[in-house]
């Protein structure tokens, strides 16, 4: 686990043509995917998300380099062992992962890279090379979370096989996971947005991204040396 320590800071000024990656951190079910989708929709020529790698074979109609990069399991395992992946996991016997190189290539091409990785990926992401801006998407209190999600007919992200609403247990898990993430990694967050109302949360996200692009912001001093 991360241990908060004192960190010398300095102002990082916006760099033309080298946008800082925007990282959305939060518990499963808190709404990060929808916020990211809405942000991309505001300017599809500006925002990019890294294409993940997978060891599973391509399905009919899938194109290598569009939905996924299709590689062998041995290749992915080698990259994992070499520390080249920001995050990785296994699902139904196939490996999936996102490489740090793919994030850097998006930045170098002049785009704003959007990520919503597992919180453990922060260790790999928060580097002087990538200089990410980390936004924690936080749920509101239990009753408000339940009321707003049920009113919006939100679909549970915990059940891939059925389209249904969230259960009380799942709402509780969202809050519990969020509290744990904030306790462990809160000292690394640049911004916290409470997703009580999706439209309001999205507006705050747009404002935060605009600040990153236009204002000098505090970062670890080692990032500007």
List keywords for this structure.
4-stranded mixed sheet, single chain, 11 strands, 225 residues, Guanylate Kinase phosphate binding domain, alpha/beta, 2 domains, 5-stranded parallel sheet, Guanylate kinase-like domain-containing protein, 35% helix, Rossmann fold
Report on the structure:
It holds the Pfam family Guanylate_kin. InterPro entries: GK/Ca_channel_bsu, Guanylate_kin-like_dom, Guanylate_kinase_CS, MAGUK, P-loop_NTPase. The chain has 2 domains: 12-46 and 111-217, P-loop containing nucleotide triphosphate hydrolases (Rossmann fold, 3-Layer(aba) Sandwich), CATH 3.40.50; 50-110, Guanylate Kinase phosphate binding domain, CATH 3.30.63.10. It is 35% helix and 20% strand. It is built from 7 helices and 11 strands. The protein has helices at 32-42, 73-81, 100-108, 122-125, 142-151, 168-185, 198-214, and strands at residues 9-12, 22-25, 47-48, 53-54, 69-70, 85-91, 94-99, 112-115, 133-138, 191-194, 217-220. The strands form 3 sheets. Strands 3-8-2-9-10 form a 5-stranded parallel beta sheet, sandwiched between helices. It has a 4-stranded mixed beta sheet with strand order 5-4-7-6. 28% of the residues are buried. The mean pLDDT is 91.
- Biggest sheet strand order reads 3-8-2-9-10
Rg to the nearest angstrom?
A: 18 Å
Q: From N to C, what is the helix and strand string?
A: EEHEEEHEEHEHEHHEHE
Task: Tell me, rounded to a whole number, the average pLDDT.
Answer: 91
Q: Mind describing the biggest β-sheet?
A: 5 strands, parallel
Specify the CATH architecture of the largest domain: 3-Layer(aba) Sandwich
Proportion in helices: 25-40%
Shape: globular
Number of domains: 2
Pfam family, one: Guanylate_kin
InterPro entries: GK/Ca_channel_bsu (IPR008145), Guanylate_kin-like_dom (IPR008144), Guanylate_kinase_CS (IPR020590), MAGUK (IPR050716), P-loop_NTPase (IPR027417)
Protein name: Guanylate kinase-like domain-containing protein
Domain Guanylate kinase-like: 19-210
């Amino acid at each position: 686990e991360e241990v908060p320590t004192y960190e010398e800071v300095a102002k990082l000024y916006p760099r033309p043509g080298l946008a800082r990656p925007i990282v959305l951190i939060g518990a499963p079910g808190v709404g990060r995917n929808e916020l990211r989708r809405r942000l991309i929709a505001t300017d599809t020529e500006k925002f990019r998300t890294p294409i993940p790698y997978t060891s599973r074979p391509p399905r009919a109609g899938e194109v290598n380099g569009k939905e996924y990069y299709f590689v062998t399991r041995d290749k992915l395992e080698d990259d994992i062992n070499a520390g080249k992946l920001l995050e990785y996991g296994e699902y139904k016997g196939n490996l999936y992962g996102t490489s740090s190189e793919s994030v850097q290539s998006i930045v170098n091409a002049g785009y704003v890279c959007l990520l919503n990785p597992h919180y453990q990926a922060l260790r790999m992401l928060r580097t002087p090379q990538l200089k990410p801006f980390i936004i924690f998407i936080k749920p509101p209190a239990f009753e408000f979370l339940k009321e707003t999600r049920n009113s919006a007919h939100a679909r549970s992200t915990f059940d891939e096989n059925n389209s249904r609403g969230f259960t009380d247990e799942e709402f509780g898990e969202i809050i519990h996971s969020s509290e744990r993430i904030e306790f462990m990694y809160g000292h690394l967050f640049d911004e916290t947005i409470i997703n009580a109302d999706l439209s309001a949360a999205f507006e705050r996200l747009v404002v935060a991204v605009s600040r990153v692009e236009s204002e000098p912001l505090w970062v670890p001093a080692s990032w500007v040396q």
